[in-house]
Amino acid sequence: MYLSVIIPAFNEEKRLPETLKKIRNHLQNQKYDWEVLIINDGSKDKTAAVVSELIKNWQARSERSRGGFRLIDNKENCGKGAVVKQGMLEAKGEWRLFMDADNSTDLSEIEKLWEFARQSPQSTGSSRPSEASLPTRSASALDRAPRPARVTLEGHGSLPCEGHYDIIAGSRYLKKDSIKIKQPLIRRMVSRIGNVLIRILLGLNMADTQCGFKMFSVRATKEVFPLQTIERWGFDMEILAISIKKGYKIKEVAVDWYDSTGSQVKKSATLKTLKELLIIKWHLIKGKYS
Hints:
Blueprint: E1 3-9, H1 16-27, E2 34-41, H2 47-60, E3 67-74, H3 80-90, E4 95-98, H4 110-114, H5 139-144, E5 153-154, E6 167-171, E7 179-181, H6 185-202, E8 214-217, H7 218-224, H8 235-245, E9 250-254, E10 257-258, H9 269-286
Parallel strand pairs: 1-2, 1-4, 2-3, 5-9, 6-9, 7-10
Antiparallel strand pairs: 4-8, 6-8
């Protein structure tokens, strides 16, 4: 399996079907093996039923495809961070991308990320990498594998050697024209103030840590996500902080982003995320991620 796409979903019966159709259309044109995991986070609406029906209909058509869709139906709400972690660790892909159910960043934007991915489709000269190019090491070998020699965040300034990243993060703020439909002013202000605090407290020199469009290699996934403790909105900050602690380079790439109506983020999430930021800082001080 080459690519896994993980989609956390909470009360997304209206927006998710269209997102899944767009994802399917994109992936069916690719020549590599893929899977899409939809992780239902204890939705109170018909999210699980709607997704199940879609998958059933697609499977009934018996179309030739290199991939398929799978629903993981959690009955209780655990938080976006918790279900993203669940999906990332259950996925089978050599590359694992999580994205938002509202399709604020379309899956087609992954083509911008592939340019900087270790063993990307482009680096093999075709849409499907050769079997020899895919990692085949066992879990024990992954643990023994040498880590990147330096800790750094790329995305501002000259580029390093392309194709050497295990973590590529989509960003709304690297380029002025990336945001196609803007959020309300107050949410933009909170986002920018939050970014300053994240830079100061965690040392994450990134334009946008919270964009829900991030891709990890299987090696990075297995090293980073088991250490994740934040279960709700602040998990992005934590997995990036853990990644840096583990010595990974992170490539930040500008992607197109559209604000979507019907957001599931409540106003109280801001204060909760600030609390999570302080928890992550404390964990770093105590060496919890070592």
